Amino acid sequence: MPDRLHDVVVVGSGIGGLTAAVLAAAYGDDVLVLEGHTRPGGCASDFSRRGLLFPAGATLTSGFEQGGLHHWVYQQLGLPVRARRLDLAMLCRMPDRVVRVPTAWPEWRTERRRAFPELGAGGERFWGRVRKLGRQAHRLAARRPVLPIQTFADLARAASLASPGLVGVLPALWQTVADDLRWAGVSGHREHRAFVDQQLLISMQCSADECVALNGGLALDLYRYGTYYVEGGPAAIAHDLVRSLEASGGGIRYHAWVTELRRDGPVWTVLTADGETYRARSVIANMPAANLVQLAGGVLPADFVRGARADEQEWGAVVLFVGLDARGLAGALPRYDQTLARYDAPLEEGNSCFVALLPPEQPRFPHLARLTVSTHTRVEPWWALADRAAYAERKAYYAERLLAAAELAVPDLRSRIAFTDVGTPRSFLRWTGRVEGRVGGVPQTRGGANFAARSHRVGPPGLFICGDTVFPGQGTIGVTLSGINAARDARAHAHAVRTSERSLRVSSLPSHWLSSSGKEAR
Q1: CA–CA dist 103, 108 (Å, integer)
Q2: CA-to-CA distance for 296 and 469, rounded, in angstroms?
Q3: Per-residue pLDDT reduced to its tens digit, 269-279
Q4: What residue segments make up the domains of the chain, in order of their start?
Q5: pLDDT one-digit tens code per residue, 175-207
Q6: DSSP per-residue letters across 213-260
Q7: pTM of structure
Q8: CA dihedral defined by 132, 134, 139, 145, rounded to 10 degrees?
Q9: Superfamily of domain 5-82+230-310+442-500
Q10: Residues 176, 209: contact at Cβ < 8 Å?
């Protein structure tokens, strides 16, 4: 209904946006989500190929443990948690060894001593430091911090989160994981360093040389707090949130590509490609900062526009999607593998890959499992290709590299293949609309994390942003926190505007309609 004035309109139905929408609706606000596609979830959505549903992005999930952010949201909404905890997060298949990554700390201590016996006492120092940093970072995340600090309320909230343990690790906000490796005396161990860099790249989007030590400690220790498989993948989280949103009276419109955001006094107008307009007291943009500049650049502060350059998201992804015959496969599914082909080459472009082998879930195809293989890629070469033939050739080259990586996890893979498909940065631009198909979020470096991260507050009153380009960053748990923070401020602003509207209505009434107290006569 175009003339309706909503409290909150959320543009985009990624996990962060849906979290913001459903929390606002649960507290009684009038909320509408606008989504350009036909399914919710954004980069955590799914899509159909030949009758199988494939996850568009990551498939390994955290945050459902007690105190975890997904668990907290589900608790607030009264939703049942259907995530199954895994004992083994992944196998890391390196050129000369295989490293198991269990989810229990004692088992991990035993395994990394076996896998990297050359570290000796230095390994104990480094991983002891990781555990200490991870514990503090996990406790902090569970209390839903707001960074960077911009208001007195933010400062008060930060002060309330302080603890002796947290104060003791404050230097880790400026140090890097590489600093900790040097401090422990293990920075020269090539194989262990490759393992650490691989783990950081898939979660923090950068290597030990750049990754903030506190954030890196959380990433390296995260699996100890729980790794989960959700039937249906992360898209199932999105569907849970949509059902809860609608049960609370909120709505979602699909096929609603937003083309412009305009500020009309205290109210925002949202325009879509099909000519519809929507009005809202607050707007939450669930998208990269660079995309928000395209929609609302004329009203955004100059520093936001300058800071929203697309190259803040350093990476794109190439993903191979495979339907394969699962009959006779050894071991239970799901299975996750991280592969490394060579120590003497950069991790991106197919040298390091993440392989997810997911169980059959479609009754029509009870024997067809789904396999995804992903690698980081630089987006620029994908857009510099001269023609379709060059693009097809590059896709075929990467498909072969990713198949070779997957064969490390499933040696007889090629004999099981039913079909394959390849997603590239060009595909992600088409699927998600993200500028140049950049995915993964802002690398968690000293210049882009924590106090230096982008705030969910954009600048113009009533406009907020959530997703993987604002604090705290990427992953479903990261964008969930950004959605929680955006919802809190969007609701407060909408309520302030609504109060102002009531005051204006009252002041415009004839004087004989008002009681002597100045309130509307009942």
Answers
A1: 7
A2: 16
A3: 999 999 999 99
A4: 5-82+230-310+442-500, 103-146+154-225, 316-437
A5: 999 999 999 999 999 999 999 999 999 999 999
A6: HHHHHHHHHGGGG--EEETT-HHHHHHHHHHHHHHTT-EEESS--EEE
A7: 0.93
A8: 120
A9: FAD/NAD(P)-binding domain (3.50.50.60)
A10: yes
